[in-house]
Amino acid sequence: MRIHAESTWTPPPPGPEQPPPQIRRALRLFRPYRGRLAVVGVLVAASSLVSVASPFLLREILDTAIPQGRTGLLTLLALGMILTAVVTGVFGVLQTLISTTVGQRVMHDLRTAVYGRLQRMPLAFFTRTRTGEVQSRIASDIGGMQATVTSTATSLVSNLTAVVATVVAMLALEWRLTIVSLLLLPVFVWISRRVGRERKRIAAQRQGQMAAMAATVTESLSVSGILLGRTMGRADSLTSSFAAESERLVGLEVRSSMAGRWRMSTIGIVMAAMPAMLYWAAGLALQAGGPTISIGTLVAFVSLQQGLFRPAVSLLSTGVDIQTSMALFQRIFEYLDLPVDITEPQTPVRLEKIRGEVRFEGVDFRYDTKGGETLSGIDIAVPAGGSLAVVGPTGSGKSTLSYLVPRLYDVTGGRVTLDGVDVRELDFDSLARGVGVVSQETYLFHASVADNLRFARPEATDEEIEAAARAAQIHDHIASLPDGYATLVGERGYRFSGGEKQRLAIARTILRDPPVLILDEATSALDTRTEQAVQQAIDALSAGRTTITIAHRLSTIRDADEIVVLVEGRVVERGTHEELVKRDGRYAALVRGDAEPEPEPSGPAQAAEGGRGRPGDGSADTTTAPPLPWDGGATAPGETIVRRASRRSG
């Protein structure tokens, strides 16, 4: 079984304006560090020039100092060769330090740019893209470029300088042997370009497969994935799926490693054989009565020639690495080029004091141009401090309507206003301060309770955190834990029950203190007793705030100032609870209810639904409130349907 090997997100097609070549764009990443790179260039050039002097010193030793018995000159020349090695080594260390620092800064800039870009992406992007795919782009793709980014600039300058300096020195020593030595270089360049293109193609496939494997790991080894896999008896199947993904990666890694290996080895063999060919050519020329080449000149030339081929091969390898890295750069640039739909205006409006009046004025919304409208012609006004409840069947647009207020989505028609200002004209800080969201899916970080609460307001004191927890009816439970507020909540908060996590989320929102509160079915997944505890926390949170409740249970909507019924994205009924009951329409069907109670089964589903069964949390009571009648009264197998009166109304 293969689970979603590819992400459902695909890069957008290129627009009419073609982006600059990737290599040029990659080089722009180094622009902020051109001063440091200039220093590296000077060090590299100096190191290359100094290293070229060594063969000339060697020639003088062999042709002059030793034959003539000049001990003093021999000593100076030998010391010169030692000094050359020392200077070259020191320059090499300095250039490595600077170039590595520059490369790591570029990596940091890339990671930060991609992360920042993703933070600005609309919610719809993350509903279409697997988390593992996103993680792979930031960690694996950028990490795969590390060697190229940190060493390429130095390698290019160093090897290019060495090649130029060595060729000049070779021409000065013996121009005829130089021409022989350079005849095969064009062939080597052609071979390396072929190898580079092949490795680039394989690298793109390899990174895609690594992203698929990372996504599989992220999904199947999360707490939810482990629970699902074990309770469904699919652990072996998931292991087989991962093994298949890993097997595909093995093949791609082998292909990447072996791509062009024989051709590059041929280059190495030819270069290794060149000294023998030069000695042979010099010997034939001498026997044929050609120009005499001294032993010192010949040895120095061979030394230079070997010094030429090393940077030449390195340049060819660097070219191959650059082409391979372009596949990784392309994946990163795809994310950096993603269009950001939700942005701040150039001159945003900042609200210093937010009252909390929310209005939907002729609001239309659709998720994409090809689909139909999710919301159409919505006109709702919620005064500051007022409460609105939204009910309707699944897929009627309830959550979408609430997400328009904090700009998780933008309207496609009409406008949503906060205190009379279109939310699209507000700065993000005003919007974040003004609107808080508590949803059914509570997300907690793998950190302490205090850190999770302080995420809402980093400067909050311990006393303020405790006050928020008390208001959310969760302080006593936290205080009873061995580590108190320093207790780790675990991955996604799985050390806490559903009701406890929900109250922690409420405490976090209380600490944020937003004037407008969005409650997106915040109690629909909780049992009766837990819901009562959470509802008390919600009542404390809602006091004095503008509240928009996406309702699933009657207890959360009876006392709302206005109740709106949505069907297929349109408002079909509105009014207070009493008015809608008298109207005997769709809402009245919920009040009457036609589902009868059924016995509650026991088993794993009960524990999964109710959390951990902690004392005082009501987790052991897994009865649930009725679904809306227009949802078809559908319940999961064995789910209890219990109709009860509102807690507020008694």
From TrEMBL:
Topology of the protein relative to the lipid bilayer: Multi-pass membrane protein
One Pfam entry name: ABC_tran
Localization per Swiss-Prot or TrEMBL: Cell membrane
Domain ABC transporter: 358-593
TM region positions: 37-58, 73-98, 147-169, 175-192, 264-282
Stretches assigned to the ABC transmembrane type-1 domain: 38-324
GO MF entry, a single one: ATP binding
Region listing for Disordered, in residue ranges: 1-20, 593-650
Stated name of the protein: ABC transporter ATP-binding protein
Residue stretches of biased makeup (Pro residues): 10-20
Keywords of the record: ATP-binding, Membrane, Nucleotide-binding, Transmembrane, Transmembrane helix
Gene source species: Streptomyces gobitricini
